[in-house]
Amino acid sequence: MKGNTEGRKFVVETRFAIDARKSRLTTSQMELVLGSMLGDGYLMPTTSGFCFRVNHGLQQKSYVDWKFKQLKNFVRSSPRVSGKCYYFRTITHPEFSDLRNLFYSGDCKIVPIEFLLEFFSEFSLAVWMMDDGAAEGRQMRINTQCFSLEENELLSGLLRAKFGINTTLNRDKNRFRLRIAQTSMEHTMKLVVPFVVPDMLYKFPL
Question: The whole model's pTM is what?
Fold first, then answer.
């Protein structure tokens, strides 16, 4: 009986994945993934392509659960704990393979600026800030140290061109990160707060 049960489970999961791959991400799902890709999101290789992995600390459990609810039609298993982390991953999907080609050079994340200029939204911005933002007095820091100086300059231009947000570059040892100017904070908050998960408001200078 145990073997039969496991076999039935395998069939169900396979059917779920097959059916899910027939669907495209909605606009809001894609915007969530884009915001996460500038933040903590990761497009992980699988045996047949790439999946999207969400991984945050246990103190951000409600945030992971929120992302899971947004993407649940592409996720077979609920979020789970691993050490001090709380995570889930989607099924393999062609759209994640396409995004992998845009957001990575080898195993290193890059900034696909032309794509972001077209598709990055206020919702994407809110997700990015919930992932990598940090209140600093009346300003806000975005921890973009994984990107090069040139890529940080591109991201600064993206924020200015798409949202009218002015930023400066702040050096962190030999890396760089973005800092939203105090004069742009009120405007920034109006754009993103409607999308912010309540438990993540601590990241914003309120």
Answer: 0.91
